[in-house]
Amino acid sequence: MKIVVQVRLLPDAAQAPALESALRAVNEAANLVSAVAFDRHVFREYALRKQVYGSLKDRGLGAQAAQQVIKKTCNAYKTLRATIQAGNLGAPGSKRRVKAESKPIAFRPDAAQPYDDRCLSWQLDTRTVSIWTTSGRLRGVRFACSADALRTLALYRHGESDLVSRDGRWFLMATCDVPEAGQYEPDGFLGIDLGIANIATTSDGEIMSGRMVNRYRRRQLSLRRKLQAKGTKSAKRLLKKRARKEARFARDINHCIAKKIVTEAERTSRGIALEDLTGIRDRVRLRKPQRVTLSSWAFAQLGSFIAYKALRAGVPAVYVDPAWTSRTCADCGHADKRNRVSQARFTCRGCGVVAHADRNASRNIAARGQVAWDAGRESRAPAPARNGQGLDAAASITASDALAASSALRAELVDSKQNTCPPPRIWRISTKTKTRCSCRAASKRSPGCGRVKRGRARRGPGRYSRLSG
Question: What dihedral angle (degrees, nearest 10) is formed by the CA atoms of 260, 263, 269, 273?
Answer without folding.
Answer: 40
